[in-house]
Amino acid sequence: MIIARQKNIKDIAAMVEDCEKVLLVGCAGCVTVCLSGGEKETEILASALRIMRKLAGKPLATSTYTATRQCDPEFLTPLDGLVGEADAIISLACGVGVQYLAEKYPDKWVVPAQDTLFAGGATEHGRWDEKCGLCGDCILHRTGGICPVIRCPKSILNGPCGGSQHGRCEIDKDVACAWQLIYDRMKALGRLQDLTAVQPLKDWSKARDGGPRKALREDLMAR
Amino acid sequence: MKYLSKLQAVLEGGHFAVTTEIGPPKHAGAHGLKYTAQILKDFVDAANITDNQTAIVRLSSIAAGVHLLANALEPVAQMTCRDRNRIAIQSDLLGAYSLGIRNLLCISGDHQQFGNHPTAKNVYDLDSIQLVNLMSRMRDEKKFFCGEEIKEYEPRFFIGAVANPFADPFEYRVDRLEKKIKAGAQFIQTQGVFDMERFERFMELVRARGLDQRAHILAGVIPLKSWRAAKFMQTQVAGMIVPDALVDRLKNAADPPSEGVAVCIEQIKYIRENIKGVHGVHIMAIAWEDIVPEIVKQAGLYPRPEVVLD
Predict the structure, then answer these.
(1) Is pLDDT of B37 > 80?
(2) Which of A44, A105, A43, A22 is nearest to A70 (CA)?
(3) Which of A206, A209, A213 to mutate to test the interface with B (most CBs of B within 10 A)?
(4) What is the C-alpha separation between A54 and A51, in angstroms, rounded?
(5) Strands, DSSP E only, in chain B?
(6) Short-list B53, B103, B116, B55, CA closest to B75
(7) How far is A170 from chain B (nearest CA, A)?
(8) What 3-state DSSP class applies to A118?
(9) Cβ count within 10 A of residue B304
């Protein structure tokens, strides 16, 4: 899922400092699961902003709504009756949600309350790790189900590099060497032979480097 | 006044400058560069060396610049943000300066999708405006991009950037030019001008803000060999406006290459005589570099001014 982290409240307040009324929109998708932008966080942020502004002598009126998903237009329709007089919309979704709101309400100032971080998973309660680089050209079948594109800071496809020691990465002792993990797993599977092939150049045009991507499912599209 | 380069001396001496562009070869031989330098050296003040233009691998801009220097033609090294991160850019530019290169053109670079390695990973660690800014800070404040002091031998480039009056949104092109000048660009080369009316409107906005007083603006011109070349520019090259009248003129010409040269000369004369604030012309004779002396002569820009560098 998409992992996001709420921005510093002072930064969020600064984005709407010239507003008197704001609508805060949470998202019940990924950001609810990673506890940064669900219904609860939306209410907390709204009251925190109100308190801050009250203390500053410039009260702020807030209203809130949490969409099932902000990345899907059908779930944004209920907002039509709520945006009304808001001077700004604060989105607590990932960057996709912010852009969907901005597109849907072209005359509204829409701002992000979160920094969208990465595609990751929970490793323990309160901790999420990046696992996928969204590169559009998956090689996990060649690397024992461990992704070197994102988990190796050099994205080495024929690793490990010379900085790997004791299973740790040279950039940070807290970071596991992805290639040590790959090696250990392939060894356990009896497939070390697979790692001896020189890997071909990667096709980065399927990643961000090829420009914004789209996925089509023509069988699902209206004729 | 101590000039950093001949190009700067020409421009700041109030002369109408002439620059051109050379695409290095797709191999490791320098004979073509030497030949082209010999042909062009008396007719232009400096020559840009493209940096893997349209993302096609070619002999490096800096190495090609050194070959030009050895053949009495002043180079303008181009540096794209596409292929190098901030570490490589600084390293290469320290190297370029150590080899005698003094003019630098900072550009984003065409996306690799247009080149011969479309599956490459691009860099774009900096953008062209940041590059201009950081290079001028390197020179004026003796600081690396990270802020660390350059203890001695800071690179002292005459710094240029580009502007495209034919891309959109039109008005923002002038804002962006101003940003480049604010960042430290001392000269500006424009995209090839075919739509004179739009270029005049652009220059009006430029003059209204006094930008022509803060940087030297060189108008780009492109001699075309055939109507097909014109049509290609019109339909296949992003950010170009080529009027149909020009395509038709080349189509109806008895001798299209001569007609293309005639058009280019008319454009240069028109720009020089009628458009205030333009300080020179940048002739991009893509793969037709040996026509440049003819154009310069017939446009009344030969001989080139003698300048003294101290």
Answers:
(1) yes
(2) A105
(3) A209
(4) 5
(5) 17-22, 46-49, 75-80, 103-107, 158-163, 187-192, 216-221, 278-283
(6) B103
(7) 19
(8) strand
(9) 18
Residue B308: per-residue pLDDT: 86
CA separation for the pair B289, A143 (Å, rounded): 50
Residue A119 and residue A134 in contact, taking contact as beta carbons nearer than 8 Å:
yes
How many CB atoms neighbour CB A35 within 10 A? 15
Distance, in Å, from the CA atom of A18 to the CA atom of A37, rounded to the nearest integer, reads 23
pLDDT tens column, B196-219: 999 999 999 999 999 999 999 999
Burial tier of A218 (Cβ tally within 10 Å: 0-12, 13-18, 19+): exposed
Residue in B117, B121, B122, B123 to test binding to A, most A beta-carbons within 10 Å: B121
Contacts of B131 (CB under 8 A, 6+ apart): B79, B81, B89, B106
pLDDT digits 0-9 by tens, B47-75: 999 999 999 999 999 999 999 999 999 99
| Domains observed in chain B | 6-298 (3.20.20.220)
The pLDDT assigned to A100 comes to 98
Question: Is residue A22 within 8 Å of residue A86, measured between CB atoms?
Answer: yes
How far is residue A71's CA from residue A80's CA, in Å, rounded to a whole number?
Answer: 16
Could you give all domains of chain A from N- to C-terminal order, each with its CATH number? 2-118 (3.40.50.2300), 133-208 (no CATH)
Q: What is the secondary structure of B151-220 as a DSSP string? A: -S-----EEEEEE-TTSSSHHHHHHHHHHHHHHT--EEEEEEP--HHHHHHHHHHHHHTTHHHHSEEEEE
What mean pLDDT is predicted for residues B31-55?
98
Verify whether the Cβ–Cβ distance B111 to A203 is below 8 Å: no
Q: How far is CA B158 from CA A66, B17, B206, in A?
A: 55, 14, 21
User: By mean pLDDT, which of A21-30, A83-92, A128-137, A213-222 is the weakest?
Assistant: A213-222
- Strands A88-91 and B278-283, how do they pair? unpaired
Give chain A positions within 8 Å (CB) of B112: 209
* pLDDT on residue B2: 87
Residue-averaged pLDDT of chain B: 97
Strand-pair partners of B189 = B162, B218
Question: Which pLDDT band holds residue A181 (cuts at 50, 70, 90)?
Answer: very high
Query: How many whole angstroms separate alpha carbon B230 and alpha carbon B240?
Result: 10
**How many Å lie between the alpha carbon of A203 and the closest alpha carbon of chain B?**
5
Which residue in B has a C-alpha nearest to residue A203's C-alpha? B119
Q: How far apart (Å, rounded) are the C-alpha atoms in residues B280 and B220?
A: 9
Q: Are B222 and B237 in contact (CB under 8 A)?
A: no
- Radius of gyration of the CA atoms of chain A, in A: 22
pLDDT in tens, B224-254: 999 999 999 999 988 899 999 999 999 999 9
Q: Flag if B122 and A209 touch (Cβ within 8 Å).
A: yes
- The yes-or-no verdict on residue B310 having pLDDT over 90 is no
CA distances from residue A77 to A28, A104, B30 in whole angstroms, order as listed: 15, 9, 64
ipTM of the complex: 0.90
